[in-house]
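Hi R.,

Here's the chain you asked about this morning:
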Amino acid sequence: MKKDVIVLNCGSSSVKFAIINAETGEAGLSGIAESLGNQDASLSYKIDGKKNTLALPEKAGHTEALNAIQSVIAQTGVVPIAIGHRVVHGGEKFKQAALVDETVLAAIEEYASMAPLHNMANLKGITTAQEAYPNLPHVAVFDTSFFQTMPKKAFVYALPMPLYKEHGIRRYGFHGTSHKFILDSTAAQLNKSVEDTSIISAHLGNGCSVSAIEKGQAVDTSLGFTPLEGLVMGTRCGDLDPSLPGTLQQKLGKTAEEINDLLNKQSGLLGISELSNDCRTLEEAALNGHEGALLAIEIFCYRLAKYISGYMIAVPTLDAIVFTGGIGENSSLIRETTMGYFKHFGVAIDEQRNLDARFGNAGEISAPSSSTKVLVVPTNEEWVIAAQAAQFA
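And here is the predicted structure, written out as tokens:
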């Protein structure tokens, strides 16, 4: 019997979905319902390479979207064995995927204060899907669970300890399913066991993170209490002086909520370049001499190189530096610029290999003389979710 799993990723105004074979990772169906709550809500999906789009009822919400998705899934004739739900925040309670029950639902709601835009949307998706598929096991797969192996020296902030002990203020990390997939894939490529594989993985997309993984366990990561800390991202600022939000409130006369919006949605590559958060647009503009685009790329790569080099301390048995995500998999310029900072470490990439490793092509891009392997590995977070959900079927 084929182990087909429905994978759902519910955002505040969207629902990404797919049917994934848990054994092969093959996606028989994938799509997204977006602009939920707006007049132009729509559903687009791809079956066997053929794209389809349909309009949803005006101001359709998650319930209407999932009803439409259920109808599309029914047309495929696929009989799923489980439903895997991406949940952003699992706090310290969840170190692995969990079969959804009332206790799990309550915990997801409890941790919503740490990810208010994500967890409540995830929760809505779960409860709505439970109504649509009451006889299937529903499994929550948490972004944060992969990082529960980090030692305290990596996740405790230099704040009064009661803030951690009583309120859970600590670094949690995100993109866990992606870093997990990259670890497993790299181990297979290096012909090593996962437990003996050590990498620094860079997940680079609109959201970005770097993780230090020593002997199969996450020991550090760049994202923190929320997905704002760390690297420069598409619209997020990453690391900055903690006093700045208060200063910006005073200087700009804005509320805390407005400053939060500025840091999360108006900063990063978009804010620096004053042009776009899309790396492809910025690379094209940079080639044409756009100063903002040039500076945005330079800052992005410099910050990334600093994090990777810093994590070399956390991974003394480093096997490889691995790039993934939309930017990491496709931008030879970002990889070349970033790794250019590592010449005095003896790490070097091969120009032609780097140019070839794009648009679905992957593999080693390091030069034969490089002291450390540098790889490009396409991520597949949906496969991780499907595989973990299938264990409960």
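One quick note: The two ends are 12 Å apart (CA to CA).

Cheers,
M.
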